[in-house]
């Protein structure tokens, strides 16, 4: 994934991250056990930060692992974090753990995404929802945003598409602000331009679910055959990753938002 540098020096880059996080030089200095004067000198290029200082500031600014490598390189140091392909033998234990997690979540849908929303793994519950999707959208690499929002994908079957689409686009905007990715920006521009399929609302405007978890969070309401299914989505990431690939993986699971959805999915289990 290509990232966009706002400036050529490590100091201006760190300043850009600090301003994006809306943290003052004094606050950052207190967090990093430094001084506002030293932070100012680093940001203006009057002082060259050490490797450890770059990593310490990046930690307190919550800068993604990939971007920390970029800061180190710009600062004149070697990257600290490896980027190991998911199919590398050293990733075998991780892949097995992911497979067990996805299988254990069945019959409910679950999938694993990388930083550009490419699907790297999915369980059988997820595949059930993909019936009727255009084959070209299912040809690897499969992108979850295209799959969901494209008129030949899931979009025509999503009963609350305007709300779900707005939520996904907002999620992408937050991610773009975090990682400044050229690929993510291009993907956002593409999927945001997809036309909305003509739909009749499935329930009157202003109605609020009164049962189940759908009353607590925005559900994904989607048809499967003659049935309406309802899910609440959650996303999990790995804690304190030391590899760029692992840091950028996200596990998305879909929790049934009502008893009817849960019961129906269990009837589909072999």
Task: Describe the secondary-structure layout.
Elements: H1 10-21, H2 25-31, H3 36-44, H4 51-60, H5 65-74, H6 92-105, E1 110-113, E2 119-122, H7 124-128, H8 144-149, H9 161-179, H10 182-192, E3 220-224, E4 227-237, H11 244-247, E5 250-256, H12 259-267
Antiparallel strand pairs: 1-2, 1-5, 3-4, 4-5
Helix pairs in contact: 1-3, 2-3, 9-10
Question: Would you write up a description of this structure?
Answer:
The protein is α+β, with helices and mostly antiparallel strands. It is built from twelve helices and five strands. Strands 2-1-5-4-3 form a five-stranded antiparallel β-sheet. Strand 1 (110-113) and strand 2 form a beta hairpin. Helix 1 (10-21) packs across helix 3. The model is unreliable at 200-211 (pLDDT under 50).
């Amino acid at each position: 994934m290509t990232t966009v540098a706002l400036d050529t020096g490590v100091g201006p880059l760190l300043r850009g991250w600090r301003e994006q996080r809306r943290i003052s030089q004094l606050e950052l200095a207190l967090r990093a056990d430094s001084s506002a004067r030293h932070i100012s000198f680093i940001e203006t290029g009057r002082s060259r930060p050490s490797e450890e200082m770059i990593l310490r500031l990046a930690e307190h600014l919550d800068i993604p692992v990939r971007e920390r490598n970029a800061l180190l390189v710009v600062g004149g140091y070697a990257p600290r974090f490896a980027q190991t392909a998911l199919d590398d033998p050293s990733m075998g234990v991780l892949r097995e753990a992911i497979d067990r997690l996805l299988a254990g979540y069945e019959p409910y849908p679950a999938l694993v995404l990388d930083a550009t929303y490419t699907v790297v793994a999915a369980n059988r519950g997820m595949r059930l929802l993909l019936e009727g999707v255009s084959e070209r959208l299912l040809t690897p690499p499969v992108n979850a945003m295209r799959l969901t929002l494209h008129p030949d994908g899931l979009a025509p079957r999503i009963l609350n598409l305007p709300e779900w689409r707005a939520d996904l686009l907002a999620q992408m905007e937050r991610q773009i602000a975090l990682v400044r990715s050229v690929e993510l920006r291009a993907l956002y521009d593409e999927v945001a331009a997809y036309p909305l399929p003509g739909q009749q609302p499935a329930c009157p405007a202003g109605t609020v679910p009164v049962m189940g978890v759908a009353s607590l969070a925005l559900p994904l309401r989607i048809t499967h055959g003659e049935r309406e299914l309802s899910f609440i989505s959650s996303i999990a990431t790995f804690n304190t990753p030391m590899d760029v690939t692992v840091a950028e993986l996200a596990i998305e699971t879909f929790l049934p938002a009502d008893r009817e959805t849960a019961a129906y999915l269990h009837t589909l289990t072999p």
